[in-house]
Amino acid sequence: MNILTDKMERNGEDLFPKGANWIVLLLVLIVIVSISVVYSTYVTRGRISSLQELEKERDDMNVQWSQLILEQNSLGSYARVEKEATKKLKMYVPTSKDIVMLKSVNLMNSGVASNP
């Protein structure tokens, strides 16, 4: 590099003509901006990929939630509860002969429910 600059100085020329400093500055800025664009694109693609993964996970969870709601509704239906109560617990709807009516007792007047 010294040989080149020495030769140009002997000829009375500068390495860069006067006023060309802005061209060098412009080239440096173009390189910096180009690198920034490449980096920004890289980061953006990574974030878009993460976003798509999260959206897929959300959709999978929504499907699972819908299936759980359907399962809850089917397990909690009155017909199923009655069927299970009859089958497992041997429960049945009482007939009129099995129903016993009790007289209401006023517990407040008898002193049973009074505060000490």
Question: Topology, pairings included?
Answer:
Elements: H1 2-10, H2 21-75, H3 78-88, H4 107-110
How would you concisely characterize the structure shown here?
With 116 residues, this protein is mostly helical. It is built from 4 helices and no strands.
Structure, explained:
By secondary structure, the protein is an all-alpha fold. It has one domain (2-110). The chain has helices at residues 2-10, 21-75, 78-88, 107-110. It starts with a helix and ends in a 6-residue tail after the last helix. The mean pLDDT is 83.
Straight-line distance between termini: 109 Å
Which range does the strand content fall in? under 5%
The tally of strands reads: 0
As a percent range, the share of helical residues equals 55-70%
Which class best fits the helix and strand makeup? mainly alpha
Shape estimate: rod-shaped
**Largest β-sheet summary:** none
| Gyration radius over CA | 44 Å
**Average of the residue pLDDT scores:** 83
Low-confidence stretches: none
How many domain regions?
Answer: 1
Secondary-structure element string: HHHH
Q: Helix count, per DSSP?
A: 4
